[in-house]
Amino acid sequence: MTVATDRIGPGGFLGFRGKGVRGRPPVDKFWEEPEIALAFKIGGWFALGVLLLPVIIVVLAGLNAGDYLTFPPDGLSLHWVIAFLTDKKFLGAYLFSLQLALTATLISTVIGTMAAIFLARVNFTGLSVLRAYFLSPLILPGIVLGLALYVFYVTTFEPLTGIRLQRSLAGLTIGHVLVTMPYVIGTVSAALFNFDETLEEAARSLGAGPFKAFMKVTLPNIAPGVMAGAIFAFIVSFGQFDVSLFLSAANLEPLPIAMYISLRYKFEPIAAAAGIFAIALVVVSMVITSRLISLKRFSGIKFS
């Protein structure tokens, strides 16, 4: 008698594999992912092309052999790439943006993870309002947030404390943390949604303290969500323009502001050359992180 095992699971009935019945596919084929419709494949490739087109344009414009930023380029040359590497203003802005993004990512990852754990484990009236408050920087336009912070620093914070945050590194870092922290809260909250809290309770029952149980049990399980949030935070902070426009100073000039000033007055391809290095940094950070923590567990993204 043939056992119909094609609907039991990858291991068949009681762990044994068998053939399908009445022409049904074998077990292994039954559990393969379904074929994606051609229309969805075409739509996916079209969306990928739309996303990659600006990147390709920036790269080609940065390799332009002409004296002005034009597309299509007048020819391909490394002249403006070398000019970027030897320009103290642009290179300094690039390194400053890198330092600022790393600092904001570290702070927002720590605070965002703690906030996500709090929102996931407490239940009280007004929790949804508090969650919306934490995620509000995602909804507010960056121009509005940057202007609001600048006005708050000038009219409220400095008169009350005597501390000048506007046009300072501390004030700029706070602005970047506010913008990036919601991404960490969102990804960590998604990771906590499927976390079994009884695992942490079991560790506590075996003698582990709250901090040790979190570090040994909870954190390894939600690490993909934490790292995904850190990636988003780094990318958003490194390319943040709106908040930096209001809070940066002449000696605290991130790369997006330096590119904006260059395009406003000179319109040289050196700004596009700087964009090449910004794109390369984002790609390298994602690849390195994908090697350290499997993003496929969290988002289904696979880096080959």
Secondary structure: number of strands: 0
Uncertain segments are 1-21, 27-31, 299-304
Could you say which structural class the secondary elements and strand pairing correspond to? mainly alpha
Q: Which CATH architecture of the largest domain?
A: Orthogonal Bundle
Number of domains: 2
List the helices and strands and how they pair.
Layout: H1 27-30, H2 38-62, H3 79-86, H4 88-121, H5 127-139, H6 142-161, H7 169-193, H8 197-205, H9 210-238, H10 242-247, H11 255-265, H12 270-292, H13 296-299
Helix pairs in contact: 2-12, 3-12, 4-7, 4-9, 4-11, 5-7, 7-9, 8-9, 9-12, 11-12
Structural summary, described in words:
- The protein is mostly helical.
- It folds into 2 domains: 1-32, no CATH class; 80-299, Orthogonal Bundle (MetI-like fold).
- 69% of the residues lie in helices and 0% in strands.
- The chain is built from 13 helices and no strands.
- The protein has helices at 27-30, 38-62, 79-86, 88-121, 127-139, 142-161, 169-193, 197-205, 210-238, 242-247, 255-265, 270-292, 296-299.
- The protein is globular.
- Residues 1-21, 27-31 and 299-304 have low confidence and may be disordered.
